[in-house]
Structures are given as structure tokens and as C-alpha cells.
Amino acid sequence: MKVNIIGAGVAGLSLAWELNQQGVEVHIFERAKAIGEQACSWFAGGMLAPWCEAENAEPVVLAYGTKALGWWQKVLDGEGITAKGTLVFSQPRDRKELQRFARRTSAYQLIDKHAIAELEPDLASQFEQALYFKDEAHLDPRQALLQLASKLQQNGVTIHFNQACTPEEFLPEKVVDCRGYNATDSLSGLRPVKGEMLLVKTKEITLSRPVRLLHPRIPLYVVPRDEQHFMIGATMVESGQSDKFSVRSMLELLGSAYALHPSFAEAEIVEMGVDLRPAFIDNLPRVERDKNLWSINGLYRHGYLLAPYMAQLAAKSIIEDTSEIEKLADFCVKE
Q1: What whole-number distance in Å separates Cα of residue 83 and Cα of residue 87?
Q2: What percent of the chain clears pLDDT 70, i.e. is strictly above it?
Q3: Which residue, of 10, 157, 299, 308, is most buried by count of CB atoms within 10 Å of its CB?
């Protein structure tokens, strides 16, 4: 069996892995010249944080997102995965936000400043308490994409770059559309949600795990990367302008980072990133099938968290040649 996949983002590569592991001949067609060059997945936070995401997501995100850590650890042989949990803070004036977050989530510990000092010494003087989600993890999405693509190529998967294709070009062969927001030409109901992120570098602070700072308007997360780099994100703007980083967003992100710790005032801004997250009206992903054409889309802000499970659903449908695709909460996956 041969399957063509359009798009080498996290959805396309995850599906390619699932199919390749079952002996399917896989060809990936990517419009960019290299992995990540034009992929929303390149600008992600890489947080495997299903319990935190459950604060404002449907229950299926928690139910299926908890499987992601094991999948990534297996696929990447444990390389680049940091399983040290997540810390969630609020400023004293926003204490109600922390209480609200706690009510809407689970699997956390409410810890005091002494426990904070053990986990993140540089933040101990800033906060009196935090929520600690010990079972969460994170990865560097860029390294993960490159590692996954390399493993696929070693396993015989061919990745064709500089190929701006449409699904119809491959029919009647089996083809899977994993183009993200670029699939609006064939998928109805898909909308863009702009995300903006900053990559900064500073030696003035050290973090071992993702940290979230709650705020009534724009919550912040900071994810540590290699060599004292930190990813600061991320906005969610209902906009299709993928090349514009707004002044408001810049001020919000930098102001919140400074509120987390004043040392970020001296950080070097290494990169500003903007891209469009593909989302349906319910903010949940879907696997859809129309004869020999499948699609995985709508991953929204849960790409690395939900792509593994969506890939498994799609692979099962393709291999078994069935339209009996399991539905997530009766509306996440459509036939």
C-alpha cells in the first residue's frame, strides 16, 4: 500500500510514522524547502500539558492528550523530552485567577514558596504559592520535527520538498491532506487563529520547566529551551494576518515576562514568530474521509498534544480502508 501525505508539519509527520511502522509505503510532499520553514508547528511551545490545557479546552483534550508524552518518548527514544511538570503562578492581585484555574483543572498540588524554591529557585522570591502539575512535560518542537523527519527518512519514507500540491493531484491514489490552514481551499469551516511568540536569551534566570503566569486578559507561558533561550508565548488572535506581529502583543508578552521575573528586562530578543493555527468552530481537531482522500486538521493550539492520537485514528482508517472512524465526544472526528 502506498499513501501520499501533503504537509510535513506535526500532523503529517506523526501520521507518516504511524503508517511507516505498519509497513506502508509513505511519500510526504512539503511546499517548503526544509522542515519547519513554513510550518505552524515550528512556532509552537511544545508543551505536553493536558491538565493545564483542560482549563479552557474540551474534556477530550485531556483524555487523549495524556497519551502524547508516552508516544513522543517512544518515537524520539526519550531524546529532547523533559518531564519535570508545569508551574502555574499569578500575581497577588490576580489570586482569583489562580483559584479559578485550580477549579477547572486537576492532578496538581498547591505548593508554597519553600516548594517553589526547590523546583525553581529563581522564582522563589517572586511568588508565595503556585500550582504544580508534576505529570506534565515539554519538548523543543523544532528539534522534535527534525528528529522525527530524520527517523522517517532512515526508515525509507521519502520527503519531497518544494512541492506545493493539492490533494486532487494524487487521486485515485490514497492521499492525506495535512496542510493546516492552507487547506481552506478544500475544507469548509476552517478558520485562522494567529499566534505570536518571542524567543529570548538571558543568563540572568534559569528555568527547568514551563511556567505559566495567569492574567485576566493575556495569560503568559515561558518554556525553557537550550543554551538559556526561552520561548515566550502566546497570543490567540482571530486574524488571518500571518506576517504581522502587533505592537500590543509585543508589549503584552514582554510586560508579562517582566512581571514573572525582572531579569527578563535584560534579555536579548532573538526571534519574533507569527503563524496561523488552523481551528474549527469547536477548537477540536478532525479526521475526515472522502473516498481515497483523508484529512487531519484543526489542531488549533494542541498540535504536539493531539497529533499522535489523530494520526493513529487516520492510520487505522487508511489501513483498514474503513469509514468507521472513532469519534471524539461525537464531534471531534467526522466521517
Answers
A1: 12
A2: 96
A3: 10
